[in-house]
Amino acid sequence: MKKILIAFILLFLTTGCTVVRIDTSSIDNITSVILSKDNKLYNRIGKGYKYYRPRGVSYIDTNELNDVLYSNGNYYYLYIDAVGYYHKTKLDYKENKKLYYSKKINDKKEGYLEIKKKDKKYLITFDYNYAKIEALVKKKDINKVVLDASYILSTVKFNDNIIALMLDEEYFTNKEEQYTKFKVKKENKENFLKYNDDKK
User: Fold this and answer.
1) Does 155 score more than 50 pLDDT?
2) Which residues pair with 50 in a beta bridge?
3) How far is CA 9 from CA 15, 17, 121, 132, 181, in A?
């Protein structure tokens, strides 16, 4: 029995697995822990981008570069900024202490998290890594939505070739060509008229 116990302990110590517990009672802690990780997971692929959709978050629909997601009674609206990514646009955000929560993020990538009270709900706007998630939620759901949004936004990866192709104006410009396949030639009309005249 001792040998089995020692084998399990050695196996556990040599695998190098680490478990990171996230204190989900603090928005600052949620964002700092998740955004600091270099997570390469993905399970959702869009046009020129991919990201990881956490367990419990369902994919609903896509419109161009925008995804609609759903979790626990809340809709998340994910916007992908392919143009900003392509041109490496810098983010200009100033923190607003009058809001429920407002913080500029300057970790590995730029972003911000802003939470405004709207009537009896809270509008979460989380912009990070050339992608943005917006959700209108109850106060009790704020931390869960921020947790999900952190996972999604931190894992957004772009396909440079597809983005460049999508934004190449010359590639999508229609080149006009004149088709003559169905154009009636003048001599054909004359032959037809002559044929009708001969029958009379």
Assistant:
1) yes
2) 45, 157
3) 10, 12, 48, 43, 79
Contact 86, 163 (CB under 8 A): yes
Amino acid at 6: I
With both helix axes pointing from N to C terminus, report the angle between 142-154 and 27-36 in degrees, rounded to the nearest 10. Answer: 20
- Judge contact between 118 and 106, C-beta under 8 A: no
Nearest to 131 by CA among 101, 163, 99: 163
User: Which tokens in the block code for residue 134?
Assistant: 């917006």
Query: What is the reported pTM?
Result: 0.71
In our burial notation (b when 16+ CB lie closer than 10 A, e otherwise), range 89-102 reads eebebeeeeeeebb
Backbone φ, ψ for residue 92 (5° rounding): -120, 100
Specify the 3-state DSSP secondary structure of 175: coil
Note the pLDDT tens digit of each residue in 174-192: 445 555 555 555 555 555 5
> Residue 133 has which token pair?
């998630």
Query: Rounded CA gap, 181 and 67, in Å?
Result: 43
Q: What is the distance between the alpha carbons of residues 128 and 112, in angstroms, rounded to a whole number?
A: 6
How far from chain centre, in Å, is Cα 82? 9
Contact call for residues 136 and 23 (beta carbons, < 8 A)? no
Q: Are 2 and 9 in contact (CB under 8 A)?
A: no
Q: How would you class 109 by CB atoms within 10 Å of its CB: exposed for 0-12, middle for 13-18, buried for 19 or more?
A: middle
